[in-house]
């Protein structure tokens, strides 16, 4: 299956790297301020009392949400390859994509606060812009392949 191997190996490698990148990003850059946000709500009479189970549950859901959300470029690449979207559509619909990103961040984050949602939405917006670039690349490759097949 050399043709399938040509797509599966880069897909698995890219998908894995993006997932791990999302988890690492969340662990080092997003989780500390998100957790710190909850701790800052403390007052003299109100102190946050997190159990290890609650912290681990929050952290694991947070890391998983980032890992999954960092799959956006892979998802858009395949949508472009099968012809559902193209870079022009992605660019034109950017405003709606940002709205959808914020809605998705609201569902993906384990807490209902806006701060955590923004922490997730900003990298997703950057990934969306990167996905437009990836879509342009996929379109260019498809045109080259189509031109090569037409010449043959």
Brief sketch in words of this structure:
The protein is mainly α and 152 residues long. The chain contains 6 helices and no strands.
Question: How does the SSE layout of this entry go?
Answer:
Elements: H1 2-39, H2 52-69, H3 72-81, H4 87-92, H5 94-108, H6 114-151
Task: Write structural notes for this entry.
The protein has six helices and no strands. The chain has one domain (2-43, 50-151). The chain is elongated, with a radius of gyration of 19 Å. 82% of the residues lie in helices and 0% in strands. The protein has 152 residues and is an all-alpha fold. The model has no long low-confidence stretch (mean pLDDT 89).
Q: Output the structural class.
A: mainly alpha
Let me know the largest β-sheet.
Answer: none
Q: Helical amount among residues, as a percent range?
A: over 70%
Tertiary shape? elongated
The Rg value, from CA coordinates, equals 19 Å
End-to-end separation in angstroms reads 23 Å
> Unreliable stretches, pLDDT < 50, 5 or more residues?
none
Mean pLDDT: 89
Number of domains: 1
Quaternary structure type? single chain
Key structural traits:
152 residues; mainly alpha; 6 helices; 82% helix; elongated
């Amino acid at each position: 299956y050399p043709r399938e191997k040509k797509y599966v190996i880069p897909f698995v490698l890219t998908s894995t790297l993006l997932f791990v990148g999302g988890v690492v990003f969340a662990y080092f850059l997003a989780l500390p301020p998100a957790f710190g946000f909850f701790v800052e709500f403390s007052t003299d009479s109100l102190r946050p009392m997190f159990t290890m189970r609650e912290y681990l549950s929050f952290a694991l859901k947070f890391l998983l949400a980032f890992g999954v959300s960092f799959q956006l470029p892979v998802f858009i690449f395949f949508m472009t390859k099968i012809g559902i979207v193209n870079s022009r559509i992605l660019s034109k619909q950017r405003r709606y994509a940002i709205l959808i990103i914020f809605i998705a961040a609201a569902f993906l984050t384990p807490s209902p606060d806006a701060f955590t949602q923004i922490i997730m939405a900003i990298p997703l917006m950057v990934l969306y812009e990167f996905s437009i670039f990836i879509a342009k690349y996929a379109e260019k490759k498809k045109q080259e392949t189509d031109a090569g097949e037409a010449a043959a």
